[in-house]
Amino acid sequence: MLTKTHLISNGAFIDDTWVLLDDETPLGDTPAIISMDRLKAEADALRSRNAKLGVVIRTNTLGKTKLGEDVRELTPYLDMLSTIAIDFPVYRNGRGYSDARILREEMGFEGELRAIGEVLFDQWSFMARCGFNSFEIDASIPVETFKEALSELSEAYQPAVDNQRGVLWRRHGL
Amino acid sequence: MYRYDEFDHKIVTDRVNQFRGQINRRISGELSEDAFKPLRLMNGVYLQLHAYMLRVAIPYGTVSSKQMRMLAHIARKYDRGYGHFTTRQNIQYNWPALNRIPDLLEELASVEMHAIQTSGNCIRNVTADQYAGAIADEIEDPRIISEIIRQWSTFHPEFSYLPRKFKIAVTGHKNDRAAIKLHDIGIVIVRNDRGETGYEVHVGGGQGRSPFIAKKLTNFVPAEKLLAYLEAVMRVYNMLGRRDNSYKARIKILVHETGETEMRRLVDEEFKRIDTSQMLSLPEAELSRISAYFAPPNYETLPAQSKAFEAAKGSNAEFNHWVKTNLVPHKTPGYGIVNISLKPIGGIPGDATDVQMDVIADLAQRYALDEVRVTHEQNLVLPHVKLDEAKEVYDILFAHDLATPNIGLISDSIACPGLDYCNLANARSIPLAQEISTHFADLDKQYDIGELKIKISGCINACGHHHVGHIGILGVDKKGTEFYQISLGGSGDEQASLGDITGQAFTEDKVVDAVDTIVETYLNLRQPEERFLETYRRVGMSPFKEQLYAD
Questions:
Q1: pTM (predicted TM-score)
Q2: Which residues of chain A make contact with B121, given a CB cutoff of 8 A?
Q3: Exposure of B331 in the CB half-sphere (CA atoms within 13 A)
Q4: Which of residues 187-216 of B touch A (CB under 8 A)?
Q5: Coil, strand or helix: which one is B306?
Q6: I need a surface site. Which of A33, A51, A99, B489 has the fewest CB within 10 A?
């Protein structure tokens, strides 16, 4: 795990005003990211709370085969959420890319989609293509490096969240 | 053949520059070997027993003469004068220096080639029938949809960190030469009652530690919806595929554990969701644009029979043998499909020298409408040769040790690199293939035995396809000694089956004898015209077992 991170949101460093809470810590009046279990358990009370709410989707935590949580279970709570953080426990685990596209394309989530965990240089551009707009990355990385990574591959064949028309379509002006 | 436009060029060039940066960061120490690993793998660079190995993609096994000359040039300049054609229709170079790989890739890009996604847990290079466009009774040239899949899957942002690697194969013919039922996704091009062309999709086949034949999830997906369907399969896999154990991470395990019916339901549901947006509906114009590249070349109008060809067969027995095994009828009168065996007796299956590759490039240019194909059985094909000129082609091939008349015979075995190169292997494969082919060197004997496919893997990962060998041989390691397990009755074609293990494994010095015993048993039991596989399917394992373990 990375020790110190900073947050890039929509291409610039920003102060992270969010806190990631465990399930026992009481919720204050500041923006808080909580677990999916807590969101489901406390949904009614949370609806009347007066501060922004976020949820973290954990991958690789549950059950024998450790698949992770299902973002589609967020459907009833989507209107309550300003941010959704998706955890990449290791960079090799790419389940979160599908989570992101489902949230954006199928569920229509328009808030902050944040990549947390092992979020490395060579994954940023794919994450951005899948709909992430905020990235917790190693604090030693300058913003220029981040922008460079996103511009390395200038064309994409297939549609995704960032670009609805891949090369297969754009060749024909579609 | 497909030609790059400015988009394709840009994508490949960007990638070369990106990988150059990654290699520089690795050499400077900024990237650890662990962080560099998935990056080099996605660019085809493996760390093998002795050196880095580079695997170059040959999409659906088709190359032009210009590209083949480049492959020869790379063997000369960056390697030790040879390359190895693999069961994935790719070519591997065993000795390139890491710091020179970016230059190598730049040279490849100049002839519209790359090493993208030839390894790593992503969608790998798409494979297809090597006789595409040349064989009669094909529904559609499988390279059209293969090229579309190549483009769609290249740097797919959602599917580049899958639970495990992912292989797609396509056939457009009822005779499956691409082993589609042993791939993560196998596509068969079909035509429905209304005369429309579409795609039958099989999912969850594979070899390795737990071999499975793929399940047919749908009978018909129309062309414009195929990418949406494939994306649905991929998404179900990416969401539900196991990541806790790399041996259980392939989609075949997901299909097996989920069950065929439930898997079909999950894919159908995902397909409906994805298809709602129409975002992945392939434009008719793009399908036509890519199809045009695979339009039949300009064949001459020739009589079906060639006098020169018939005369040469009559006067030259060796040529006649070669025609019987290595030349396949072409859909166009007066043409033939020439198979070039990369299995000389006692040679290394799939290896070709730079000189041989140059010779093949020249032949393709002069005699075969500028095309060469790579087969998953590690041979090469000149797909469009005039029968009038077949003897000239043969003579040139013969002069370069490329005219071994053994396609489909016992000495045409396929073998993985094995312990001679690979750091996963338990046992050597290549020397065994060499011993077997030397043992059965006598051509008359080989013709008498007839079609018999031996496939040899040096470990359980089954790169040598032993599960689907008529005779399969698997290297296993027992307390530091190399043993070989033998299986019978496997097949990778449209009637795919997995081989049955004969029993206790054999030590290296007994394997050739065991194969000999199996062959003799078959010769004693066969009915007229019956091939090995048919005899085995008729009589079963018992008679073979009795002979093998008699004492």
A1: 0.95
A2: 92, 94
A3: 15
A4: none
A5: coil
A6: A51
Note down pLDDT in tens along chain B; length 551 residues: 999 999 999 999 999 999 998 899 889 998 888 878 878 888 899 888 778 899 999 999 999 999 999 999 999 999 999 999 999 999 999 999 989 999 999 999 999 999 999 988 999 999 999 999 999 999 999 999 999 999 999 999 999 999 999 999 999 999 999 999 999 999 999 999 999 999 999 999 999 999 999 999 999 999 999 999 999 999 999 999 999 888 999 999 999 999 999 999 999 999 999 999 899 999 999 999 999 999 999 999 999 999 999 999 999 999 999 999 999 999 999 999 999 999 999 899 999 999 999 999 999 999 999 999 999 999 999 999 999 999 999 999 999 999 999 999 999 999 988 888 888 888 899 999 999 999 999 999 999 999 999 999 999 999 999 999 999 999 998 888 889 999 999 999 999 999 999 999 999 999 999 999 999 999 999 999 999 999 999 999 999 999 999 87
Query: Amino acid identity of B456?
Result: I
The neighbouring-strand residues paired with A35 are A56
DSSP code string of A113-167 = EEEEES--HHHHHHHHHTT--EEEEETT--HHHHHHHHHS----SS--SS-S--H
Buried b (16+ CB within 10 A) or exposed e, B142-167: bbbbbbbbbbbbbbbbbbbbbbbbbb
Q: How far apart are CA A81 and CA A131, in angstroms?
A: 16
Kindly list the distances between the CA atom of residue B233 and the CA atoms of A113, A130, B107, B159, B247, in Å, as whole numbers in the listed order.
Answer: 24, 17, 35, 11, 20
Q: How far apart are CA B286 and CA A173, in angstroms?
A: 11
Any bridge partners for residue B83, and if so which? B352
For residue B83, the SS3 value is strand
> How far apart (Å, rounded) are the C-alpha atoms in residues B196 and B27?
54
Q: Quote the ipTM score.
A: 0.95
| Coil vs helix vs strand at B64 | strand
In chain A, residues with a C-beta closer than 8 Å to the C-beta of B7 are 155, 157, 167, 170-171
B11 and A157: CB-CB below 8 Å? yes
Full set of structural domains in chain B with CATH: 6-110 (3.90.480.20), 134-291 (3.30.413.10), 307-399 (3.90.480.20), 414-548 (3.30.413.10)
Structural domain range at position A60:
5-170
- Alpha carbons A86 and A103: distance in angstroms, whole number: 11
- Nearest-Å Rg of the Cα atoms of chain A is 17
> Please, what's the largest Cα pairwise distance for chain A?
55
Residue B191 distance to chain A (closest CA, Å): 24
For the domain that residue A75 is a member of, what is the CATH number?
3.20.20
Q: Encoding tokens for residue B150?
A: 């190549």
Q: How far does the CA of residue A48 sit from the closest CA of chain B (Å)? A: 33
Closest by Cα among A25, A108, A37, A111 to A69? A37
SS3 string, B473-533, reads EEEEEECCEEEEEEEECCECCCCCECCEECCCCEEHHHHHHHHHHHHHHHHHHCCCCCCHH
The total of structural domains in chain A comes to 1
